[in-house]
Fold:
Amino acid sequence: MASFPELSERAQHLLKALVERYIGEGQPVGSRALAKDAGLSPATIRNVMADLEELGLITSPHTSAGRLPTVSGYRLFVDSLLTVKPLQQGIVDHLWCDLETRDSPRELLEAASKLVSELTHMACIVTMPRRESLAFQHIEFLPLSEQRVLAILVTSDQEIHNKIIHAPRSFSAAELQVAANFFNAMCGGKDMATAREHLRSELQKERERLSDELLHAGEMADQALQVGSRSKKPFLVRGETNLMDFVDLADLERLRTLFDAFRQKESIVGLLDSCLDSPGVKILIGEESGFRPLEPCSLVTASYSVDDRAVGVLGVIGPTRMKYERVIPLVDITAKLVGAALNQRGLVPT
Amino acid sequence: MASFPELSERAQHLLKALVERYIGEGQPVGSRALAKDAGLSPATIRNVMADLEELGLITSPHTSAGRLPTVSGYRLFVDSLLTVKPLQQGIVDHLWCDLETRDSPRELLEAASKLVSELTHMACIVTMPRRESLAFQHIEFLPLSEQRVLAILVTSDQEIHNKIIHAPRSFSAAELQVAANFFNAMCGGKDMATAREHLRSELQKERERLSDELLHAGEMADQALQVGSRSKKPFLVRGETNLMDFVDLADLERLRTLFDAFRQKESIVGLLDSCLDSPGVKILIGEESGFRPLEPCSLVTASYSVDDRAVGVLGVIGPTRMKYERVIPLVDITAKLVGAALNQRGLVPT
DNA sequence: GATTAGCACTCGAGTATGCCGAGTGCCAGA
DNA sequence: TCTGGCACTCGGCATACTCGAGTGCTAATC
Structure:
């Protein structure tokens, strides 16, 4: 990231004023407008603007329009010029009240994304907790018709995962109960990835000493623990339609690719996962995300943690021209609250 | 519904041609265009068109444009003029192959809606099966931390419903097992609504003869059976973004209300449920649905059945100007296949 | 040396204007 | 009953023009 030490105090102030104004009004801002705020004449402002343009921090869409920030301009703005407004305590309380009452992680995340999208009037996206980082808590098998078995897996965040498994033969409820008890004793409390490792190695080691049921059940348990690292729908989006209201995005072509991206998962999840490990709030402006459909947008993310391990990401998607000083603290706090709410439950194992 | 017996053979043919042409091209059709098809002169056509306009079947957007069908025009068209094209056997096979392999009803419906939306390039909406009409198959309780109990309910369509219940006190796994066995014996095979009735009356009757655990568990079972008549997300929508491609709907305002309607449930579900009991394919054109966001759209629905009881609805949403003769058979057949796939499983109780 | 006023220039948005073509309604004639 | 002809209507498109906001540059001023 380029820094701009050569930038005079005044130039910085001016850039800040320009970005703020552009974010507020959405139209290229001219020298006159800034001159009033700064107590300088338009001509002076124009000189400074010319410098800023040379540095690639602002551009003008055409000769006789005002200037607007480039991606680098926004970057500099959010990195060092921005004065973040702390979130009102009332809002924090409101968030917490809503979140702490949720039963399952899924509901919790749904509530969180809904709240954030409403507060920002933008779209909010949340990834489900990564299973690898969660602890295995409990597994249960239920016989269904024919040779299908329902595996019910409870993870340390108290989320319930169902999976239907096609068994090699049919099992009685009693047999399955025995198997479940066995695995629960074996893996309970271990984290998901090591639980699976452990399960596999044990099955391998004890192959001859174990009964047939257990071996079969072992394979089923293995399948249940796998299921990729996340559930089928690995993230939630709320408030997408809010994005239709921004003139900046009012282009059916763009909106369509954006909405399609929400519906399809891989790239979005990859992008969010890449924000998982950086602590604090991460901001991707326009093309910085390296993801086409998000080009006209900015993404503000923060990760949330269970047991001090970052397991998921909460993000806000909106036009590049968004009120960062409000969005940043909201995303930050909400992610923390989500983590707190997840930690608050599920600490007492069964 | 008004019928138009006074309509001459020729007028009907002409209306048909006009609607077809308008559906195909999307522009008001003039007398010249129709004259070529009909082997008549434009002037003659104009006379007939004037009649049709007087009857309210077509209009012209302005003096010197061609004509396009009104809602009544479309109505007459789909009711008595339309020649439905039977679905190619290849497509039927393709659908069936895809559907029959699905494990859970949810996956099945997801697959169905995805397929239909892709085949039509429009949006497809499917309601989840109504629980009241399904049979209770199995319930299981799992103790979670503190006083929370996970109720797992399996219905006759082999769908799995999870619900976390806050219990009056904590229960051991064994206690819960006993209770589950009791309820399974009591209600197994009964249909959902009567199962709940039965449960309640039994609990009332036997109040003093039953143990405390069972009474408490009874209340939990009651809660599990309730959960409204459908799950939280009572319907699925796929291919919404396809709608952005239709010029007829290319209006951000409209699209926004439409998309918001998809996200929020009540009205859509109400609308679809009202199509549940009419057999065969039902078509709602434009404002006929009585639902604002759907005004520029048509809705083609058919219900699907389990055990000969209509339990859900599959529908296609697209511009009024859609190829009904293709959509109708597709919706019809797909709904039947969904029913067949649901019936095919879950007949053998555990 | 930094700041400012003045001036010529650029460009987009909005508006008026005119033309073309597709389509209509109506009437008279086949 | 059908058809050809004719006058008329109206939207779409292109052209031309004006207006205003804004710029860059230069020379004068603090």
The CA atoms of residues 54 and 346 of chain B lie 56 Å apart. The longest helix of chain B spans residues 324-344.
